Amino acid sequence: MKARVTIMLKDGVLDPQGEAIRHALGGLGFAGVSGVRQGKVIELDLTSTEAEAAKAEVARMCEGLLANTVIEKYAVEII
Amino acid sequence: MKARVTIMLKDGVLDPQGEAIRHALGGLGFAGVSGVRQGKVIELDLTSTEAEAAKAEVARMCEGLLANTVIEKYAVEII
Protein backbone atom coordinates (compact mmCIF):
# COMPACT_ATOMS: atom_id res chain seq x y z
CA MET A 1 0.00 0.00 0.00
CA LYS A 2 1.27 3.51 -0.78
CA ALA A 3 0.71 6.68 1.19
CA ARG A 4 1.40 10.23 0.09
CA VAL A 5 2.14 12.93 2.64
CA THR A 6 1.95 16.56 1.56
CA ILE A 7 3.66 19.01 3.88
CA MET A 8 3.18 22.75 3.43
CA LEU A 9 4.08 25.76 5.54
CA LYS A 10 1.09 27.02 7.51
CA ASP A 11 -0.73 29.96 5.96
CA GLY A 12 0.73 32.76 8.07
CA VAL A 13 4.31 31.53 7.74
CA LEU A 14 6.62 33.37 5.34
CA ASP A 15 7.76 31.16 2.45
CA PRO A 16 10.94 32.66 0.94
CA GLN A 17 11.41 29.67 -1.40
CA GLY A 18 7.94 30.16 -2.87
CA GLU A 19 8.58 33.89 -3.15
CA ALA A 20 11.83 33.20 -5.05
CA ILE A 21 9.97 30.93 -7.47
CA ARG A 22 7.30 33.61 -8.03
CA HIS A 23 10.00 36.17 -8.74
CA ALA A 24 11.84 33.83 -11.15
CA LEU A 25 8.61 33.00 -13.00
CA GLY A 26 7.95 36.72 -13.43
CA GLY A 27 11.45 37.16 -14.82
CA LEU A 28 10.80 34.41 -17.36
CA GLY A 29 7.68 36.19 -18.60
CA PHE A 30 4.98 34.21 -16.77
CA ALA A 31 2.87 37.15 -15.71
CA GLY A 32 -0.27 35.49 -14.37
CA VAL A 33 1.13 34.13 -11.11
CA SER A 34 0.03 36.04 -8.02
CA GLY A 35 1.39 33.72 -5.33
CA VAL A 36 3.53 30.62 -4.88
CA ARG A 37 3.94 28.29 -1.88
CA GLN A 38 6.42 25.46 -1.91
CA GLY A 39 6.17 22.32 0.17
CA LYS A 40 7.32 18.72 0.34
CA VAL A 41 5.70 15.52 -0.77
CA ILE A 42 6.78 12.16 0.65
CA GLU A 43 5.60 8.87 -0.84
CA LEU A 44 5.82 5.88 1.47
CA ASP A 45 5.60 2.19 0.50
CA LEU A 46 3.90 0.49 3.43
CA THR A 47 3.70 -3.21 4.23
CA SER A 48 0.37 -2.64 6.02
CA THR A 49 -2.77 -3.73 4.14
CA GLU A 50 -5.36 -1.95 6.26
CA ALA A 51 -5.97 1.58 5.00
CA GLU A 52 -7.30 3.25 8.15
CA ALA A 53 -4.55 1.80 10.37
CA ALA A 54 -1.91 2.79 7.80
CA LYS A 55 -3.24 6.35 7.67
CA ALA A 56 -3.06 6.64 11.47
CA GLU A 57 0.49 5.24 11.46
CA VAL A 58 1.59 7.73 8.80
CA ALA A 59 0.02 10.57 10.82
CA ARG A 60 2.19 9.45 13.77
CA MET A 61 5.26 9.51 11.47
CA CYS A 62 4.36 13.09 10.51
CA GLU A 63 4.01 14.19 14.12
CA GLY A 64 7.25 12.47 15.13
CA LEU A 65 9.58 13.10 12.21
CA LEU A 66 8.27 14.24 8.85
CA ALA A 67 6.60 17.58 9.65
CA ASN A 68 7.49 20.43 11.96
CA THR A 69 3.97 20.98 13.28
CA VAL A 70 4.84 24.38 14.74
CA ILE A 71 5.11 25.92 11.28
CA GLU A 72 3.95 23.16 8.90
CA LYS A 73 0.67 21.45 8.16
CA TYR A 74 0.42 18.00 6.63
CA ALA A 75 -2.12 15.91 4.77
CA VAL A 76 -2.04 12.12 4.44
CA GLU A 77 -3.70 10.23 1.60
CA ILE A 78 -3.63 6.55 0.80
CA ILE A 79 -3.01 6.04 -2.93
CA MET B 1 -7.52 29.63 -9.75
CA LYS B 2 -4.99 27.44 -7.98
CA ALA B 3 -2.68 24.85 -9.50
CA ARG B 4 -0.67 22.22 -7.69
CA VAL B 5 2.53 20.86 -9.24
CA THR B 6 4.00 17.66 -7.81
CA ILE B 7 7.63 17.02 -8.76
CA MET B 8 9.23 13.65 -8.02
CA LEU B 9 12.50 12.08 -9.05
CA LYS B 10 12.03 9.63 -11.92
CA ASP B 11 11.77 5.98 -10.90
CA GLY B 12 15.31 4.89 -11.71
CA VAL B 13 16.95 7.88 -10.04
CA LEU B 14 18.55 7.39 -6.62
CA ASP B 15 16.80 9.38 -3.89
CA PRO B 16 19.19 9.79 -0.93
CA GLN B 17 16.78 12.11 0.90
CA GLY B 18 14.02 9.50 0.75
CA GLU B 19 16.47 6.83 1.85
CA ALA B 20 17.49 8.97 4.85
CA ILE B 21 13.84 9.35 5.83
CA ARG B 22 13.28 5.58 5.58
CA HIS B 23 16.30 4.97 7.77
CA ALA B 24 15.18 7.54 10.35
CA LEU B 25 11.66 6.09 10.47
CA GLY B 26 13.15 2.63 11.11
CA GLY B 27 15.21 4.09 13.94
CA LEU B 28 12.07 5.57 15.49
CA GLY B 29 10.39 2.15 15.50
CA PHE B 30 8.19 2.48 12.39
CA ALA B 31 8.88 -0.95 10.96
CA GLY B 32 6.34 -1.23 8.14
CA VAL B 33 7.97 1.17 5.68
CA SER B 34 9.67 -0.53 2.72
CA GLY B 35 10.47 2.51 0.61
CA VAL B 36 10.36 6.29 0.67
CA ARG B 37 10.60 8.85 -2.14
CA GLN B 38 10.69 12.55 -1.48
CA GLY B 39 9.62 15.25 -3.87
CA LYS B 40 8.42 18.83 -4.06
CA VAL B 41 4.99 20.32 -4.27
CA ILE B 42 4.42 23.84 -5.55
CA GLU B 43 1.07 25.59 -5.23
CA LEU B 44 0.50 28.47 -7.64
CA ASP B 45 -2.16 31.16 -7.42
CA LEU B 46 -3.05 32.01 -11.01
CA THR B 47 -4.94 34.97 -12.37
CA SER B 48 -6.14 32.89 -15.32
CA THR B 49 -9.74 31.68 -15.19
CA GLU B 50 -9.60 29.06 -17.95
CA ALA B 51 -8.54 25.68 -16.55
CA GLU B 52 -7.11 24.06 -19.70
CA ALA B 53 -5.09 27.12 -20.67
CA ALA B 54 -3.83 27.45 -17.09
CA LYS B 55 -2.76 23.82 -17.03
CA ALA B 56 -0.80 24.24 -20.26
CA GLU B 57 0.83 27.42 -18.91
CA VAL B 58 1.87 25.64 -15.69
CA ALA B 59 3.31 22.76 -17.76
CA ARG B 60 5.45 25.35 -19.60
CA MET B 61 6.60 26.71 -16.21
CA CYS B 62 7.60 23.18 -15.21
CA GLU B 63 9.59 22.65 -18.41
CA GLY B 64 11.26 26.04 -18.14
CA LEU B 65 11.97 26.41 -14.43
CA LEU B 66 10.25 24.25 -11.84
CA ALA B 67 11.35 20.73 -12.80
CA ASN B 68 14.62 19.28 -14.02
CA THR B 69 13.07 17.02 -16.65
CA VAL B 70 16.27 15.01 -17.07
CA ILE B 71 15.82 13.40 -13.65
CA GLU B 72 12.39 14.59 -12.47
CA LYS B 73 8.81 13.97 -13.51
CA TYR B 74 6.00 16.39 -12.77
CA ALA B 75 2.23 16.32 -12.53
CA VAL B 76 -0.04 19.38 -12.78
CA GLU B 77 -3.51 19.54 -11.29
CA ILE B 78 -5.93 22.42 -11.08
CA ILE B 79 -7.44 22.64 -7.59
TrEMBL record, chains A, B:
Q: What is its EC number?
A: 6.3.5.3
Question: SUPFAM superfamilies from the xrefs?
Answer: PurS-like (SSF82697)
* Reactions listed under catalytic activity: N(2)-formyl-N(1)-(5-phospho-beta-D-ribosyl)glycinamide + L-glutamine + ATP + H2O = 2-formamido-N(1)-(5-O-phospho-beta-D-ribosyl)acetamidine + L-glutamate + ADP + phosphate + H(+)
Alphabetically, which GO biological process terms does the record hold? 'de novo' IMP biosynthetic process
State the superkingdom. Bacteria
Give compartment(s): Cytoplasm
A molecular function (GO) term: phosphoribosylformylglycinamidine synthase activity
Pathway(s) of this molecule: Purine metabolism; IMP biosynthesis via de novo pathway; 5-amino-1-(5-phospho-D-ribosyl)imidazole from N(2)-formyl-N(1)-(5-phospho-D-ribosyl)glycinamide: step 1/2
Which enzyme class, named as a word?
Answer: ligase
- Transferase keyword on record: no
- Which GO CC annotations does the UniProt entry carry? cytoplasm
Pfam families assigned: PurS (PF02700)
Which keywords accompany this UniProt record?
ATP-binding, Cytoplasm, Ligase, Nucleotide-binding, Purine biosynthesis
Q: Which family does it belong to?
A: Belongs to the PurS family.
What does the record note on quaternary structure? Part of the FGAM synthase complex composed of 1 PurL, 1 PurQ and 2 PurS subunits.
Q: So what does this one do?
A: Part of the phosphoribosylformylglycinamidine synthase complex involved in the purines biosynthetic pathway. Catalyzes the ATP-dependent conversion of formylglycinamide ribonucleotide (FGAR) and glutamine to yield formylglycinamidine ribonucleotide (FGAM) and glutamate. The FGAM synthase complex is composed of three subunits. PurQ produces an ammonia molecule by converting glutamine to glutamate. PurL transfers the ammonia molecule to FGAR to form FGAM in an ATP-dependent manner.
UniProt protein name = Phosphoribosylformylglycinamidine synthase subunit PurS
Source species: Paracoccus litorisediminis
Underlying gene:
purS
